[in-house]
Design a protein that fits this description.
Blueprint lengths: L8 H28 L14 H37 L3 H4 E3 L7 E4 L26 H15 L47
Antiparallel strand pairs: 1-2
Helix pairs in contact: 1-2
Length: 196
């Protein structure tokens, strides 16, 4: 006993239109990535080191999305063709033939009356506003943090640093409270700063 199934061509054609709509959305995302994800501006100084990696990531992401665009386009075309085939229409009535290469099928006419399926909200592709980094504020913040970390703790004499947190003088082997390591400081620091 053979099994049978029923195809509603309008729904199949609706899926074809949905795939085409999704393909257009994916192509928009691909263009957005190609234009906006590259290291075009702001990659100066130390950031130049990551520029090639950012550009390669943008390129490979664009290629990955382009593959999805091609797959969705092909799926939409084949679903549309399948809707025509299941409708029983004569193939010559819906095939589109190349005017340059006679006999070569280039596509298919849109199936009439497809059921509507929503592709959802199209992605918002406005690039974010570029903001210049406030370098002065960043430096001030770092300086403030470093000042707080060198402030004497409660119970310490004013101006004294913890012996473990102050830099060590290379020449004398002693810790240099509140100053950068030196090479010519005399070894006359108080005993609390000497290496033990």
């Amino acid at each position: 006993m053979g099994e049978s199934f029923h195809v509603e061509e309008e729904h199949l054609a609706g899926f074809a239109v949905l795939c085409s709509d999704l393909s257009v959305q994916a192509a928009g995302v691909m263009g957005h990535v190609s234009n906006e994800a590259k290291a075009e501006s702001g990659f100066t100084g130390l950031m130049e080191l990551v520029k090639p990696a950012v550009d390669q990531y943008a390129h490979l992401t664009g290629v990955r999305i382009a593959n999805r665009v091609d797959l969705l386009t092909a799926m939409g075309t084949e679903l549309n063709r399948a809707a025509w085939d299941y409708s029983g229409a004569d193939r010559k009535s819906y095939e589109e033939i190349s005017p340059i290469m006679p006999g070569q099928v280039t596509g298919y006419k849109d199936f009439p009356g497809p059921v509507g399926y929503s592709a959802g909200t199209a992605p918002a592709l406005e690039p974010p506003a570029l903001e210049e980094a406030d370098i002065r504020a960043i430096l001030d913040e770092v300086a403030a943090r470093s000042t707080r970390s060198t402030t004497p703790s409660r119970g310490s004499p004013a101006g004294a640093l913890s012996p473990r947190s102050s830099p060590r003088c290379r020449a004398t082997g002693t810790r240099s409270p509140g100053r950068a390591p030196c090479s010519s400081r005399p070894a006359t620091e108080p005993s609390r700063w000497r290496r033990t």
